[in-house]
Amino acid sequence: MEALQPVQQQKANRVITVLSVAIPVAVAVLLGIRQKVNLGTWTTYLPHLNGIINSITSVLLLLGFYFIRQKNVLAHKRTMLAAFTFGSLFLVSYVLYHLTNESTPFGGEGWVRPVYYFLLVSHIVLSVVVVWFVLRAVYFALSGQISKHKQTVKYAFPIWLYVSVTGVIVYLMIKPYYIH
Predict the structure, then answer these.
(1) Which parts pass through the membrane (predicted)?
(2) Do residues 58 and 161 touch, judged by C-beta distance below 8 A?
(3) Which of 23, 35, 120, 132 is least enclosed by beta carbons within 10 angstroms?
(4) How far apart are CA 124 and CA 163, in angstroms?
């Protein structure tokens, strides 16, 4: 693939940085909206969909890792783009749920409570951080900058996998407290 010109590289970096800030800020603003939008009771099922999406994303990430270790670049590329697509679908579904429903309080007690909150807080913090890494990794891969892609995924992959897996664990821990 042809090398990118410095101006193209600067534009791409700017877009990635803006998105990496704008996405978490937009999510935080939407979560803070007190007046919820009524789109019907079907939105109460979105957390369950999100648990499925996070599970699929986790499996796709592991498959992508497996494929690249097997030097199957095409399967790796397809799998990782699918993981990116599912991650994007998760984000839309997550925002839609919180735009239409109050957050569900965790009802667990005892030792499980601090475990839940540790997983939740680490999941949230790293989900903000991972956006920048994932966008860069995808950009570098699609623009043929494989050495930069490899450098970026050293951080992107474990963080993204942690965020996906803890998303599933947090969902399973809070699932009994969802009201339909």
Answers:
(1) 12-33, 45-68, 80-100, 115-135, 155-174
(2) yes
(3) 35
(4) 8
Cα 73 off chain centre by: 23
CATH of region 10-27+40-177, choose from 2.60.40, 1.10.1070, 2.20.25, 1.20.120 = 1.20.120
- 100-150: pLDDT as tens digits: 888 888 888 999 999 999 999 999 999 999 999 999 999 999 999 999 999
Distance CA 86, CA 57 (A): 6
Angle, helices 73-100 vs 146-174, to 10°: value is 40
For residues 127 and 4, the model is more confident at 127
Q: Mutual orientation of helices 6-32 and 112-142 as an angle, nearest 10°?
A: 150
